[in-house]
């Protein structure tokens, strides 16, 4: 950068000191200038900026939501003393876990050994470390880390989503790490790069997305008045035609019912007995006198079922009869001793003998005497 340009920039700083400056919103000791497209292209070609944008790892299209690479941000504006230009920071004491460099996230110790003292760097703070790309909600504030390799004026360029370019001219600072506050003032993709001495920094890309504010919920009064059938009075909503019907109104709305003496009487609408309903739903059954009678569907007697499952058996009158399988007849119990036959009477004994006859209470027999006369047997 030649001496005439430096002088012009320093003069511009004095003229614009104290103004509010767009996305970086730096308020003191800073000059800001809007550049035309041709002025900007005279500094760096569009192809060079496109190549620098690819190296940031940013997606090819601008994010419209937070995505997965959101910056660490706050909704509260920083204090005025933090908006006066680059703010010193001691990364040796508060080093980040990871920092993006040449397409990779490196641990701080590894990065410190690789970086050259002449490297001009620009990063934005994210949860995992410092990156060349992040998303940020509209109205958010995020910290950007800047490494200044030489004591020279700093020209910081920001390409806005609309295509116009703003130049922020910062006063020289001692070499080292500093941070700036970035303010998400316009939705879309913001691209930043700075020049110091003869060095150009890497590009930093920030996608600013717009958060839709939550829709306010209507108050009870507003909900009430949105209904043409309702009106709001004394903290309550009164609606015409939306009152629950009284039992009488509900009864009379049924053509089968009449309201009488505080009760609803309906013709044919007596609630069905569920047992009766279940019975009549079976074509084999009929309901009579509070009982369900079914044809051929009575539960089987398990003993009868078991009997009839045996082809040698049949069921009759509550008993199972089986052929050849009945148990043996039990032995008969001994009966009483028979009474002895009575002895024959003398008359019977007499008459049983053909040679005798009974007469006068005596048995008279012939041919038994020595003289052939009758002889008495002495049977009386």
Key terms:
single chain, alpha+beta, Immunoglobulin-like, 3 domains, 7-stranded mixed β-sheet, 9 helices
Task: Describe it.
With 380 residues, the chain is α+β, with helices and mostly antiparallel strands. It is built from nine helices and 26 strands. The strands form seven sheets. Strands 2, 3, 4, 5, 6, 7, 9 and 12 form an eight-stranded mixed β-sheet that branches. Strands 1, 8, 10, 11, 13, 14 and 15 form a seven-stranded mixed β-sheet that branches. Strands 24-25-26 form a three-stranded antiparallel β-sheet, covered by helices on one side. A hairpin with a 2-residue loop joins strand 20 and strand 21.
> How many strand elements?
26
Give the oligomeric state. Answer: single chain
How many domains?
Answer: 3
- Envelope shape: elongated
Instruction: Using the CA coordinates, give the radius of gyration.
Output: 62 Å
User: Ranges with pLDDT <50 over ≥5 residues?
Assistant: 1-22, 369-374
Report the β-strand fraction as a percent range. 25-35%
Q: What is the CATH C level class of the largest domain, in words?
A: Mainly Beta
Helical percentage: 10-25%
Largest sheet: 8 strands, mixed
CATH level-4 homologous superfamily of the largest domain: Macroglobulin (MG2) domain
* Gap between N and C termini: 186 Å
User: How confident is the prediction overall: mean pLDDT?
Assistant: 79
The CATH topology of the largest domain corresponds to Immunoglobulin-like
CATH architecture assignment name of the largest domain: Sandwich
The secondary structure category is: alpha+beta
Helix tally equals 9
């Amino acid at each position: 950068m030649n001496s005439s340009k430096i002088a012009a920039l320093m003069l511009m700083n004095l003229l614009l000191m104290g103004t509010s400056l767009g996305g970086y919103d730096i308020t003191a000791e800073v000059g800001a200038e809007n550049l035309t497209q041709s002025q900007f292209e005279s500094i760096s070609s569009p192809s060079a900026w496109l190549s620098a944008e690819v190296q940031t790892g940013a997606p090819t299209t601008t994010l419209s939501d937070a995505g997965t690479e959101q910056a660490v941000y706050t909704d509260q504006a920083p204090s005025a003393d933090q908006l006066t230009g680059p703010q010193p920071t001691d990364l040796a004491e508060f080093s980040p876990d990871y920092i993006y460099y040449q397409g990779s996230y490196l641990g701080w110790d590894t990065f410190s050994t690789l970086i050259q003292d002449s490297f001009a760097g620009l990063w934005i703070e994210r949860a995992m470390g410092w990156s060349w790309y992040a998303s940020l909600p509209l109205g958010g504030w995020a910290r950007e880390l800047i490494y200044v390799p030489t004591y020279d004026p700093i020209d910081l360029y920001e390409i806005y989503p609309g295509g116009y370019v703003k130049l922020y001219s910062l006063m020289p600072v001692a070499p080292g790490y500093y941070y700036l506050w970035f303010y998400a003032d316009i939705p879309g993709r913001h691209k930043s790069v700075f020049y110091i001495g003869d060095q150009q920094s890497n590009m930093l890309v920030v996608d600013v997305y717009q958060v839709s504010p939550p829709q306010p919920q209507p108050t009870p009064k507003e909900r009430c008045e949105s209904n043409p059938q309702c009106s709001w009075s004394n903290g309550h909503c009164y609606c015409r035609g939306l009152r629950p019907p009284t039992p009488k109104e509900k009864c009379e709305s049924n053509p089968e019912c009449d309201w009488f003496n505080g009760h609803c009487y309906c013709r044919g609408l007596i609630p069905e007995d569920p047992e009766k309903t279940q019975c009549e739903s079976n074509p084999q059954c009929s309901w009579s006198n509070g009982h369900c009678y079914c044809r051929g569907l009575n539960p089987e007697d398990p003993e009868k079922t078991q009997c009839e499952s045996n082809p040698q058996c049949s069921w009759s009158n509550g008993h199972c009869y089986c052929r050849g399988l009945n148990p043996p007849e039990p032995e008969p119990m001994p009966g009483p001793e028979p009474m002895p036959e009575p002895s024959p009477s003398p008359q019977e004994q007499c008459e049983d003998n053909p040679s005798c006859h009974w007469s006068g209470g005596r048995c008279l027999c012939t041919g038994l005497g020595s003289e052939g006369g009758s002889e008495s047997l002495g049977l009386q």
